[in-house]
Amino acid sequence: MIQSDDEGMGLVEWFVGDKGIIDYSLTLEGSENKLSRNPRQWRLFDIITAAFFAVVLLFFILLFTPLRDSMAASGRQTLLVTTTSDPRQRQRLVTLVESGHHLQPIEYCPADAVAHMPCEDPKRNSQLSREMNFYRERHCPLPEETPLCLIPPPNGYKISVPWPESLHKIWHANMPYNKIADRKGHQGWMKREGEYFIFPGGGTMFPGGAGQYIEKLSQYIPLKGGTLRTALDMGCGVASFGGTLLSQGILALSFAPRDSHKSQIQFALERGVPAFVAMLGTRRLPFPASSFDLMHCSRCLIPFTAYNATYFVEVDRLLRPGGYLVISGPPVQWPKQDKEWADLQAVARALCYELIAVDGNTVIWKKPVGDSCLSSQNEFGLELCDESVPPSDAWYYKLKKCVTRPSSVKGEIALGTIPKWPERLSKVPSRAIVMKNGFEADARRWARRVAYYRDSLKLELKPPAVRNIMDMNALFGGFAAALASDPVWVMNVIPSRKQLTLDVIYDRGLIGVYHDWCEPFSTYPRTYDFIHLSGIESLTSKSRCSLVDLMVEMDRILRPEGKVLIRDTPEVLDKVARMAHAVRWSSSIHDKEPESHGREKILVATKPLWRMPSNSH
Fold first, then answer.
1. What sign does the dihedral 299-301-302-303 (CA atoms) show?
2. Which of 72, 245, 385, 596 allows an S-S link to 250, with CB 3.0 to 4.6 Å?
3. Largest Cα–Cα distance of the chain, in whole Å?
4. Which domains, from first to last, does the chain contain?
5. Which residue, among 153, 162, 123, 150, has the nearest Cα to 139 in the 3D structure?
C-alpha cells in the first residue's frame, strides 16, 4: 500500500495572539536614532522566535522521518480504543461507511493482531470454564465489542507459494512461528530451511511420513477406487495426513483447536490443505449426520470414553454407515493405559462396530449399517435418540448422550449404496430427492456461470493463482462441483439460518460447514485465495448484523492479491462497491451471463498487498 503523507495526521495550527505583539519605541539621542528595547521585550521576542523555528523544525521532522508514522499509529490506536469502548461511536462509523460518506479507508489494526481470530481469542476465552474444554470452543464477542479495523499482514509477508509446491514448503515470513518446528521437527512435522518452512510429511505417529502410514492403512481400508471420498482428520497437526490423502482422491477436512502449537491450522491452510479451527468440547461439530466416509485420529488425545462416551457418540453421528474409524496412538495398546483401551473397545462393541484390525498402536473399526443391535444393557448407559433429537442440527447445538439412529437419516446414505467418486458428484443424492428438479437445475446453472467467470470475466480459478476457495452461501455446492476437475478445493458454507443442505453437499463428495455470517469464521487471517458469494444481503438476516462487519471479516480471511466475487442486485452491489473502497479493495461491476434470468449483476474485487508503515508496532 502506498500511504499518502497526510494520512493519520491532523492539521497543525499555530499563531501569535494579541499579547504576543512586540512593542518597539524609537528614541532620539543627539543626531543618532536608536532602537530601544526593554530587556523583558528582548526575552519575549527570543521566545517567540524560538517557538517559530521549533514549529518549523517539528513540521519537517513529521514530514520526512518515521516519527510521523509513529504518531499516526498512536492516533489509530486511539481510534480503535474509542470505537471499541464507545458502541455509539462505532455504530456511527459503520453507518458512515454503509452510506458512502466515510471517504477514507477503514484503519488497520495494530501489528500484534496479525493472527487474530475474534471467536478464538485466548485472552478472552481463558476466563471461561475448563469443563469439557468449553473455553477452547468458539466464543464470539458482540460486534460492538470488536474494533472496526483491517488485520495487517506480518512484516515481510510474501504472496503464498503456489500449489502444489505449497504442500511441501511455505514462506517462513508469512507465519514466523517456530514453536512446532522446534518441538516436532524430529518427528517430521516441519523444519525451517532458510526463508522456508519445509514439510517432510511426518507426524507423531508416522515420523517416517504419512505416505508409509497410509500405505499400512490401505491393507485394511479401501482407500483407492472411489469408495471413500470424504474424511475428517481430528486433531490434525499441520495436516500432512489430509494432504497426502489427496493423491488417493480422498478429500479430508482437518481440524484442531487454537492451542499451544501456535497456528497449526494456519500452517495447514498455507500449505493448501482443507482445514479449520474447531474443538470437540460441549457442542456438536458443525456438520450434519452421516457426513464422513472415514474419520481419523492420530494421537489427537480426544478422551472418547469420557462423559459416558459422549465424544465417541459424536464421532458415530458424523460417520457414514459402513464408514471407517481409525484411531492411532493413546490409548490403543499404550503403556499404562490398559483401562482406557479396554473402555474404548467396550464402547465400540456397544455400538456394534466391526473390529477390522489392531496393528501396533492403530485400531480400525467399521460402523454398522443398521441401528438395531444397540443393547439396552451396556456399561455406558448408551441409548438411541428419540425422534425429538434432530440428527443434523449442529450450530451451537449441545452434545447429546444418545446415539443417532442411522434410520433417522432418510434415504440411502451407507457406503456401498451410494455411487463411488466421481459419479456421486453429479447423481442426485437421496437426501436431495424431494428437491430433485432444483438440484439438477442448480448443477446446470453453475456449470454455465463458472464458464462465464472464466471465459468472459477472465478469472483464474486454479493454481497458481487460486488454491483455497470459499463459497459463503453454497446451497447444493453447485459452484464447487463445477470446479471439481481443477486442483482446487472449496469450503462450502451453509448459513445456519437457511435451508440446511450441507448433507447433500457431503453426499456429493464435497466438504463444508454450517456457519452464521453475523459472526466471524473459525479460521486464521489470510487463508483463502478466492471468496464467492451469491446473495450477500441475505446473509445479514434482515439487519441482524451489518454489511460493513461482514466485509471486514471477508477481508480478514482473504489473502493479499486474492479476489472476491459477489452476485446480487444492482442496488446492493452499489452499496457493496462503496464498502469495497472502505476495506481498500479495487472493484468493478459486470453484467451477468446472458443465459441467466433476473436482475443480478456481478462485482469482482481484489485485495491489495498493503503493508503497515514502519514504527507502527
1. positive
2. 245
3. 128
4. 84-145 (no CATH), 204-403 (3.40.50.150), 423-607 (3.40.50.150)
5. 123
556 three-state secondary structure: helix
Spatial distance between the Cα atoms of 177 and 190, rounded to a whole number of angstroms: 11
C-alpha cell at 612: 503497515
| Consecutive H or E run containing 68 | helix 67-85
pTM (2 decimals)?
A: 0.86
Cis link prior to 464 (omega < 30° from 0)? Answer: yes
Write the CA distances from 504 to 322, 370, 399, 439, 483, integer angstroms. 18, 21, 23, 10, 17
pLDDT per residue over 246-301, tens digit each? 999 999 999 999 875 568 899 999 999 999 999 999 999 999 999 999 999 999 98
Characterize the bridge pairing of strands 354-359 and 362-366: antiparallel
319 strand-pairing partners? 292
State which amino acid sits at residue 489: W
Other beta carbons within 10 angstroms of residue 120's beta carbon come to: 24
C-alpha cell at 390: 434432530
Q: Which residues touch 574 (CB under 8 Å, ≥6 apart)?
A: 589
556-603 pLDDT, tens digit each: 999 999 999 999 999 999 999 999 999 999 999 999 999 888 899 999
